[in-house]
TrEMBL record:
InterPro entries in UniProt: DIOX_N, IPNS-like_FE2OG_OXY, IPNS-like_sf, Oxoglu/Fe-dep_dioxygenase_dom
Keyword Transferase applies: no
A single MF term (Gene Ontology): L-ascorbic acid binding
Protein name: Fe2OG dioxygenase domain-containing protein
Length: 358
């Protein structure tokens, strides 16, 4: 008789408040059962490295603000990437390399602290300013992801340094300011890519809020059995992602998992569900995942650009992008309703967008 109780094992793991990193440090040599992902096809993970035929979109933002010819080329490149991949990388984005490096180090500093220090931040209370835990959907997802995360709403109300973990508070604040500035510029380019006025998406408050997620993916004794993040698309308008040099992020493109290459100094940008919704499917919120490895931990920083959940702003397909031949494909929603549905559904491998289709 199988005495395994997923519920009690998950609860014991959660109650320890030390995350996947703590699990690994306890000396485990096998992945606990509740992390095993039945959807992984070991063959499929092997295919990815053979995908050299795909050239991941890399966009140079140098001169985009003051050279009209360069801007037009960038607008075209962003349009194509957003319609096909839903992902692209940007270089010469204006954020100094020292800031990027310090932000990555900040994540390592947080997760490198003693357990007792980190436990002060461990919570499942989504109303907390800083939420550190393993998997927001730990209790509801089909399988847990091999990842610990610090989650913090950074804008529009920038936290005071004392509200954040002291080992990374200064860089979190500085990096937020830099990403907000880059985000505004990207939303202007995206608006133009849709044939709209530059400030259209900004006026819709798509960039009003910023949530920062510090991800830590420990090395894994059986990487073929679990994922760092299972297949999903993001619930926001736009995500700006900073990663260390270890590969792990993969995008589903033409039904194949493609590795996102590491480009020094680059940031990865991807379209979120709400931007697909307001663009009436012009832009694709692509599904992606993170694979883990057995040799070393990987860290990343995801900045989710979105309206605040307190906002009453209504989102539906933009009028200019809808016509008799191309009717609205989604019903109206708010950032709060969308986020709430996304959270309750969890990362179950299906798209949250389908719930809002008409």
């Amino acid at each position: 008789m199988d005495c395994y109780s997923r519920e009690s094992e998950v609860k014991a793991f959660d109650d320890a408040k030390t995350g996947v990193k703590g699990l690994l440090e306890s000396g485990i040599t096998k992945v606990p059962k509740f992390f095993i992902n039945p959807q992984i096809d070991p063959q499929q993970t092997l295919i990815t490295s053979a995908n050299a035929q795909f050239e991941f979109p890399l966009i140079d933002l140098d001169g985009v603000a003051d050279d009209p010819i360069k801007r037009e080329a960038v607008v075209d490149a962003v349009r194509e990437a957003s319609e096909t991949w839903g992902f692209f990388q940007v270089i010469n984005h204006g954020i100094p390399e020292a800031v990027l490096e310090d932000m990555i180090d900040g994540v390592r500093r947080f997760f490198g602290q003693d357990d007792e220090e980190k436990k002060k931040w461990y919570t499942r209370d989504l109303k907390a300013r800083v939420v550190y835990n393993t998997n927001f959907d730990l209790y509801s997802s089909p399988s847990a992801n091999w990842r610990d995360t610090v989650f913090c709403e950074m804008a529009p109300d920038l936290p005071q340094p004392e509200q954040l973990p002291s080992v990374c508070s200064d860089i979190m604040i500085e990096y937020t300011k830099q990403v907000m500035k880059l985000g505004r510029s990207l939303f202007q380019i995206l608006s133009e890519s849709l044939g709209l006025k530059a400030n259209h998406l900004l006026d819709m408050k798509c960039a009003a809020g910023l949530t920062m997620l510090l991800h830590y993916y420990p090395e894994c004794p059986q990487p073929e059995l679990t994922l760092g993040t299972s297949k999903h698309s993001d619930s926001d308008f736009l995500t700006v992602l900073l990663t260390d040099q270890l590969q792990g992020l993969q995008v589903l493109y033409q039904n194949q998992w493609v590795d996102v290459p590491f480009v020094p100094g680059a940031l990865v940008v991807n379209i979120g569900d709400l931007l697909q919704l307001v663009s009436n499917d012009r832009f694709a919120s692509a599904e992606h995942r993170v694979v883990v490895n057995s040799s070393s931990p990987r860290v990343s920083v995801a900045c989710f650009m979105n309206n605040t959940e307190k906002s009453t702003e209504i989102y539906l397909p933009i009028e200019e992008l809808v016509s008799e031949d191309n009717p609205a494909r989604y019903r109206a929603t708010t950032a709060e309703e969308y986020a709430s549905h996304y959270r309750s559904k969890g990362l179950d491998g299906t798209s949250a967008l389908s719930h809002f289709r008409v």
